[in-house]
Amino acid sequence: MDAARWERIQSLFHRAADLPAAERSAWLEAECRDDPDLARDVLALLEEDARPSELLDGGLAHVADRMLGGADAPGIPPHEFGPYRLGPVLGEGGMGVVYLARREDLGVEVAIKILRDAWLSPARRERFAAEQRTLAQLNHPSIARLYDADTLSDGTPWFAMEYAQGVPLTTYCQERRSSVRERLVLFHAVCEAVQHAHLHAIIHRDLKPSNVVVKDDGAVKLLDFGIAKQLESVDMGADQTRTGLRLMTPAYAAPEQIAGGRVGVHTDVYALGVILYELLAGQLPFDLSDRTPSEAAAIVLEQQATRPSTLARERVARMGADAGVPAVGRAAWPDLDVLCLTAMHKDPDRRYRTVDALMRDIDHYLAGEPLDARPDTVGYRLGKFVRRNRQPVAAAAIALVVMVALVAFYTLRLGAARDAAVAETARTARIQQFMTNLFQGGDESVSPADSLRVVTLVERGVLEARALDQEPEVQADLYLTLGEIYEQLGRFAEADTLLRAALDRRRSLLGADHPDVGESLVALGELRDAQGEYEEAEALVRDGLAMTRRSLPSDHPAVARATAVLGRVLQDRGEYDESIVTLEEAVRLQSVPDAAPADLAASLTELANSHFYAGNYDVSDSLNRRVLEIDRATYGERHPHVGDDLINLGAIQFERGRYAEAEGFYRQGVDIIQSWYGDAHQATGSALTMLGRSLIPQGRTDEADTVMREALAVLERVYGPTHPRVASAVNELGLIASRRGDLDEAEARFRRMVAIYRVIYNDKHYLIGIALSNLAGVLQQRKQFEQAEQLFRETLLRYAETLAPDHQLVGIAHIRLGRVLLAQRRFEEAAMETLAGYELLARQVDPGMAWLTAAREDLIAAYEGLERPEAAERFRQELAALAADSASRSQAR
User: Fold this and answer.
1) Taking Cα atoms as reference points, which of 308, 302, 306 lies closest to residue 346?
2) d(CA 525, CA 572)
3) Would you say 790 and 773 are in contact if contact means Cβ atoms under 8 Å apart?
4) The dihedral of CA 476, 478, 484, 490: what is its sign?
5) pLDDT of residue 454
């Protein structure tokens, strides 16, 4: 047997082995109809492979079973899969079986994938493990998530992942007769998921419609990373290429995959181009059915794809309304042809260099703007302009003279726009090349390390950016972007270095009074705000805003953004009245028709926060619900902005004493934020803090303690020991310790909280009052009533300096001071303080709020001490009515 025939047998054997047994014979007959002997040879190998192995071929577990005379291994079910209860089979492939399962304690359904015959092939087992590792890195709303992984008692590996119930992308669009715009919006969501994987240095390698399902609500889910690869391992040698060939789907495989060449980001771009082609033309660019592998390879490698517009028209002429092709005007097809054929170019260097570049051209098409992939001609741009402005142009056609004048005017204007676009395109292309180099390591023969993660990419980006001394403007842009990424990652020292470098470069290039310099000042101010250095933050942002206002029109988006940042800094300083005025101005600027909804939502969120801190809970609730609607419409249900909105709504319910409702909002928010950012991000730590604090007043201290310690560990790692968010987590742990009676720990926690706030806020902020009040509560528990009274009175002074007179915190402080006076049997003073707090809270919160209940009990005791039974009776009746109402609701449930 010659080497070529043996290689052919091996390839067919491996491909058939990955098919269900019932499908192998028919598949081999189709693949080998020109060589029946070849099919028989492969079937013989498959039959031999399926026979029981010799004693030492099955691994240690198999040897032990044979030596001890064990019975045949049972089928996979029934087995214990952690907390999951196995359901019906969802699907079966060559590598594993997928079951539907349910986790009863959380009430969620998952898909459990089990590697069958794991001991037969170490390579198969490694692929299965690689899929787990890949999914563990990816947290994106359009990628099915990994939940859990383990092995059965016999060593069979399994993992549980998100159950994405839906239909393939192409089927979804055909069944609903989706328009071009609807198809492109769905396709854009697929691209975002693929781009997310690329940002984590992972290429999918098997993109196709069956691996993209669309749920009933229109949400997209990208599945099956079974042959995905880290970029460090895609530059395979010849001995590895056969494995890649037998696993990919030829109809969607790029020419370099077919030829065994280097694969990478460009390979997924090609597959996306094929999917887009199929969405628009209703069929694949190449008909590979009933083709041998060699014939299919020749077609993909040598034939040029027909324009999708041509196939679509032929399909409609042949099939009519059943063609499954969207209605597309003649003028729109050229751009759609360019989108597909650029993504599918046989030369990887002539495709879209990144998925982001492909998405950008989709955005251009949807906005009626020129594509980056089209030649930059006046006629093309003028045509796009006319289509975007039909009514003005139609009106201009009334008079020939007016039309000529308009043509001349717009020709000149388009020429200037073209020149600006050329410069911007060159700058964009340079940045695209920069991003591509991050993935390729700047050398096609050198790939990223196995440990490549987002932080590693950013670090590599910094090195690349520092090498751009000959392109200082691009270098400054990249320093700013990378610095902001570091800030989002909680790497403040690195962010500071880069943002300062960007500011210095821009000052030297553009002068001291340029809008780009203003942008850098605002960005550096945002970093100082995140670091808790509020005085410097305000000075930087005010300078940047003033510079931006001098250089740009008053309605420019950069002015609105800088105004919003200033409002947030003032909020963090506790200057709520000024913050509200500033943020209302930002909202006004961002409420114009052309403004981005995301910018408006961000400013509305900060405005809602300022009203919340000022005690205006109804206004804050209304604003937050408006933001939630905007964010859901803009980002979908599973975006972290939506998670933040839910957290904010939970905070309002908490302040109203509705702790169970608050917990519900918090849990929804934590689920979204944690799934997006992972367990170690500061956003997750902050969200967990809010969840933990809602459990404390419900008496679930053990659960709260676990949540809060996890939150504190995350926040200290990101911010260090001195930061407001760290102080917030420390406060909740102090409250838990106090409830448990561990007064030493509680006192230590609250004293640390006081110290943090005094340093950050220069000894002037209402949060210092909260910390002093909680510390006084510990002293009260120790029966050190005089010291506690002194701290409560200091708390009220702090609140008087920083809060409105009717703020809820003022009412709570009066009640707590009254309780200390009551313990000293100073009944008159106790009744006066407690009644003041009671009346303040009763106007704002639910009657059953814990502090109101405590106030009623204390007033009963105080009035009895004053021998005023009629006054005490009023509050006894209120408590009895609340108890009866609670019992009635319990029976109704």
Assistant:
1) 302
2) 12
3) no
4) negative
5) 55
Task: List the structure tokens of 443.
Answer: 């050398």
Percent of the chain with pLDDT over 90: 31
User: 67 is written with which tokens?
Assistant: 């030596």
Higher pLDDT, 261 or 667: 667
CA dist 707 to 529, 643, 667, 710, 712, Å? 26, 18, 12, 5, 9
Does residue 250 surpass a pLDDT of 70?
yes
Say what the pLDDT of residue 857 is: 95
Q: In the numeric block, which tokens belong to residue 792?
A: 């409560």
Mean of the pLDDT values across residues 64-83?
50
Distance CA 465, CA 841 (A): 56
Which of the following is catalytic: 41, 105, 206, 555? 206
Per-residue pLDDT at 634: 85
CA distance 566 to 543: 10
| CB burial of residue 72 (10 Å; 0-12, 13-18, 19+) | exposed
Q: What is the pLDDT of residues 566-598, one digit of tens each?
A: 999 998 888 888 999 999 999 999 887 777 788
Peptide bond into 553 cis (omega under 30): no
Alpha helices in 552-596 (DSSP H): 557-572, 576-589
Cβ 193 vs Cβ 356: under 8 Å: no
Catalytic status, residue 206:
yes
End-to-end CA distance of the chain: 78
146: three-class secondary structure by DSSP? strand
420: CB partners within 8 A, 6+ apart: none
Q: Check: CB of residue 349 under 8 Å from CB of residue 255.
A: no
Helices (H), 90-168: 122-137
- Contact (Cβ atoms closer than 8 angstroms) between residue 739 and residue 709: no
